[in-house]
Design a protein that fits this description.
By secondary structure, this protein is α/β, with parallel strands linked by helices. The protein contains 4 helices and 6 strands, in the order βββαβαβαβα. It comes from Hymenobacter negativus.
């Protein structure tokens, strides 16, 4: 994935554009506050708009668990807005190493009520293959 085009980064996350046509969000082990996490997702949405990409790979790696507040914001506000704004339609989630982080990601997935299709993966290669499918 060395040909990723950097879009934004801070201590908690790196946002890039993959040549296959999707936005990639790589989480780091650094903790982030609820406002910082919301800001990262706003950068993701801006990247989706900029690159005209309705697909996302989010690589959770060592990401600390998200608070219930952020999970609710994602399911009730951000995901529906991304669906309406850019046609956000597919999300490949490369699962976190920490069980609590995995649970938080699954709570967001099961809590969203939009047309977004998402799948969980144990590795980036499988996630990339799924996003490349038509």
């Amino acid at each position: 994935m060395s040909s990723l085009q950097h879009y934004f980064s801070n201590a908690a996350a790196v946002i890039s554009y993959a040549p296959a046509g999707y936005i990639r969000l790589d989480w780091q082990a650094a903790p982030a506050t609820a406002p910082e996490l919301r800001a990262i997702y706003e950068h993701v949405l801006r990247a989706m708009i900029h690159h005209r990409s309705p697909t996302l790979m989010t690589v959770h790696n060592r990401r600390p668990p998200m608070s219930a507040e952020v999970q609710t914001w994602l399911t009730q506000e951000w995901i529906p807005r991304a669906v309406a704004t850019v046609g956000y339609g597919r999300c490949a989630i490369v699962q976190a190493e920490m069980p609590l982080s995995r649970l938080a990601a699954h709570a967001v997935g099961s809590g969203q009520k939009t047309t977004l299709r998402y799948r969980y993966f144990d590795d980036e290669t499988a996630a990339d293959s799924w996003l490349r499918e038509a």
